[in-house]
User: Fold C2H2-type domain-containing protein from Holdemanella biformis DSM 3989.
Amino acid sequence: MNEQKVQCRLCEQYFNDEDMSEEHYPAHSVGNDDIIELDLTKFMDTLMGDNPELKEAISAAIKNGEDPKECADKYFDQHLAKDLYPKGRTARTLCRKCNTFLGKYDEAYKKFYSEDGDPKKVKGFQKQTKIQIVKAIFAKFLSIPEAQDIHFDFLDFIRNPEEMEYHGAWKLYFIKRDYSTDLIGLSDIPTGKIDWNGDGKMIVFELSDDKFIFNLCNFEKFPEFEMNDIFDVMEKNYSLVTGIHGNKGSFHEHFVMTRMFKGMK
Ligand SMILES: [Zn+2]
Assistant:
């Protein structure tokens, strides 16, 4: 019986809850410390000038000879941005052994992250480091809450350090963040899942850190979406896609919109 047991998402063995590790996603080293979530409904109201609470606070500030801008900033911190994960995001989805094993891949990703994915630098990485970067990102999708009911076909690819190729159903794309990916420059970084046509056939997951946005999907991205394939980092001609280009659209925008409408219900 496995009632009290938790299954590790990587080795698929069952463990007692206390034998699971508490992993952070994204890792603490890559910007998981100060995550905020915007209260999008309030935020839109505020943008439209329709937030009586804020108006009142500002007129009170002016009356008291305080700086209205300071007041607005304070309001933003206290009422629009809430600490989403005060201790960072954690999940118990991996056993200790697998978590330690993935630590090697995370080290490789950290190199990629600290070089901002810069092709000049990444091209100089060893092949082993590059494949570890690829595997680190695939592995992160094992831990997101929205993917817990999915049996991914890339477990062997991740588990075998020697394996250089993956030809399964899932594609992994990414872009580097810039002003075009984030509302007024604020990067909020939740995870998500979209059922693209509502029929359960085309699934897209998203996770991100404060530099990159990753999408895992069981179909080829639409040609107009400009994104890197994660395997691009292995290639000699790797170049980095930054931001969302013009009107071409992106998975990320759909995630932002979906969340916004959820908040408006
Ligand atoms: Zn395990």
